[in-house]
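User: I'm putting together notes for a lab meeting next week and I want to include a structural view of one of the chains we've been expressing. I don't have a solved structure, so I'd like a prediction I can at least talk through. The sequence is below, exactly as it appears in our construct file.
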Amino acid sequence: MNIGTPLSSNSTKILLLGSGELGKEFTIEALRLGIEVVAVDNYQFAPAQQVAQRYYVIDMKNPYQLRDIVYREKPDFIVPEIEAINTDVLLDLEKEGFTVIPSGKAVKYTMNRIGIRRLAAEEVGLKTSKYRFASDIDSYRKAVEEIGLPAVVKPVMSSSGKGQSIVREKDQIDKAWYYALENARGEGREVIIEEFINFDFEITLLTVRTKNQGTLFCDPIGHIQVDGDYYESWQPQPMSLKALEKAKEIATKITDALGGYGIFGCELFVKGDEVWFNEISPRPHDTGMVTLVSQNMSEFEIHLRAILGLHIDIELIKPSASYCFHADKWGSPISYEGIDEALKTPGTSVRIFGKPTGRPKRRMGVALATGETVEEARKKAKRTAECIKVII
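Assistant: Thanks for the context. Below is the predicted structure for the 392-residue chain, given as C-alpha cells.
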C-alpha cells in the first residue's frame, strides 16, 4: 500500500524502515530540510506515516517485499528505525549500491544480541557482564547455574525490553525462560543469560559518527527502565570525569567497529569509575527523547545531519527530563485528557505519538520538562505525565 504524490526527482529521498515515535521526529527534521521521506511499517497509520509524504505497509522481514520497495523507490538513504527487519537483505542491497544507515554491518550486528555481544566482548575487547547463550531449556538451566543468581535473562532478538527479566530465586528460572521465548521477535528460541551488575546507574551515551568531524558525543543521559522498557530519562547524568572518559572510549571503539555515519545509542552500566558495555542501537534512542528540549539539536536532527554530512554543533541548553505516559487497556485512543492541566507548569511540553491503537503499558506519549537542576526537571516531567490520561 502506498499513499501520496512524490516530490520532484531532484529531491533527496529517505526510505524509513519502521515508523514509530522516533521515526516520526526524524521525519519532521527531514521535512524541514526539504527531504522526501517514504515511511514503511507493518501496520497502517504508524506515527511517522502520518507526517511522511508517502508510506507503505509491508512485512519488513519478508525479503521479497523489502527488496521490491527499495528498487521501486530507489532511495538515497535506507534508514532503519526498528530491529524487526530482514538484515541479510539490507547487507545485499548495500553491496548493490544502496546506502544503509549507519551501515549494513551495524544493523545486522545490533538486531541480534549474540552478534553485538560477541563483537563487543570477544572482538573489540570491551568490558561486559559475564554471559552465556542457550537454545534449549537444559543448556539454559546450566548457563544460569554457571552465571549465578541474580541473573538477567533476555531473548536474543527483541526490542524495548520485551521478554527481559531478572532471576533472583531458583523458582523463577524456568519462568524467565518461557517469558523470554514468548516475547522474542521472530521464530528464534535462543536467550542470553547475563551476570547481574550491581551498578550505580545506567546511561545512554548518544555517540555520533560523522564524515568530517570525527566522533561526537551528547552529554550522558540517565534513565530508568521498568521490565526492561524505558519510562524516564534525564540529561545530564552526573558522573565522574574518569567514568565519562571510559564511557566515551568504549562508545568510540564499538561504533568504529560497526562503521557508517549517524547517531548510536550506547547503553552503559556505571559503578563509581568503572564502566561496562551493555547494548547499542544504531539509531536515535528512546531515552534520547529528552534531547527534544535539553539540547540545541535533538538526537533526530543530529542523526539527519550526520547522514547528510552537515555540520553538527551540540550544546546542552538546560537540565531536562522526560517521562512517558501509557495506555492501560486495548483499543483505539479517543482522546487524551488532562493536557491543559499538564501544561500549566512552566517549562513543560507534551509529545503525543499518535499510535493508532493502545494496549496495557504501551507508550503513547512523553512529557518533557526543563529545570534549574536535573531533580527539578524530573519532578516536573513526572507531574506533567501523571496529569494525562489516555481515553480508549
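A couple of points you could mention at the meeting. Confidence is low (pLDDT under 50) at residues 1-9. The longest helix spans residues 241-258.

User: Perfect, that's what I needed.
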